[in-house]
Amino acid sequence: MPVNDLATLIVGAGNYFTAPTSTPMPSDILVPPSPWANVGHTSLEDLFGVTSEGGEATVVGTLQNKSLRTNYSARTETLTFTLQQFDTAGLRLYYGANAPLLPNGLIGVPANPKPTVCAFLVVFIDGDNHFGFYAPKAEIYRADDMTIADTETLAGLPLGVKPMIDGSNAWTYAVTPLGTPTSGDPSDG
């Protein structure tokens, strides 16, 4: 793999979007058209994370070859970020899609919360570089307990996004490579 300076990333800005399940990734990820909706303010400190469960390796063999091959268990991944906008839409992402709006304007916290199921898009901007994560179907729900640490920093709602298989896809989410030349000629990049 050659060294490619254009494929590096320092996040200068970013946005997180939701849309109805199966909404295609927009051709212009910097300005996604409707029905894509920005989730709102997010943490400047805890930008984004990817954690995974599963994927354990098991070496299987035969009498003739003790390490013939390796099997891997299924892996699921969770994308995490901290939402800092405590409006109705944000609170429902954290407390559950079925959190009711009560007659007095409060949000009820459901006893049996359900995650928000939707398409999900994250766009990170580094000058002219734009790096995106796109899941045509994902479940969004709280990733951790909420803590309000002090009076000097913005409080946040830690969210987890679990990308899911959508329709006949063999993948759960996709990422946009950086540093890819616009034509077949690598010198164009």
Distinctive features:
189 residues; eight-stranded antiparallel β-sheet; globular; two-stranded antiparallel sheet; mainly beta; 4% helix; single chain; Major tail protein; 10 strands
Walk me through the topology.
Layout (H helix, E strand, L loop, with lengths): L12 E7 L17 E2 L10 E6 L2 E4 L8 E4 L2 E9 L4 H8 L20 E11 L2 E14 L14 E7 L10 E2 L14
Antiparallel strand pairs: 1-2, 1-7, 3-6, 4-5, 6-9, 7-8, 8-9, 8-10
InterPro entries: Bxb1_TTP-like (IPR058154)
Pfam family, one: Phage_TTP_17
Organism: Pilimelia terevasa
Q: Give the ordered list of helices and strands.
A: EEEEEEHEEEE
- Biggest β-sheet description: 8 strands, antiparallel
Alpha carbon gap, first and last residue? 16 Å
Question: Unreliable runs, pLDDT <50, ≥5 residues?
Answer: 181-189
Helix/strand structural class? mainly beta
Quick one: how many beta strands?
10
Helix content: under 10%
**Count of helical stretches:** 1
Q: What does the radius of gyration come to?
A: 20 Å
Strand-residue proportion? 25-35%
Overall pLDDT? 92
Please, how many domains?
1
Shape: globular
Pfam family, one: Phage_TTP_17
Protein name: Major tail protein
InterPro entries: Bxb1_TTP-like (IPR058154)
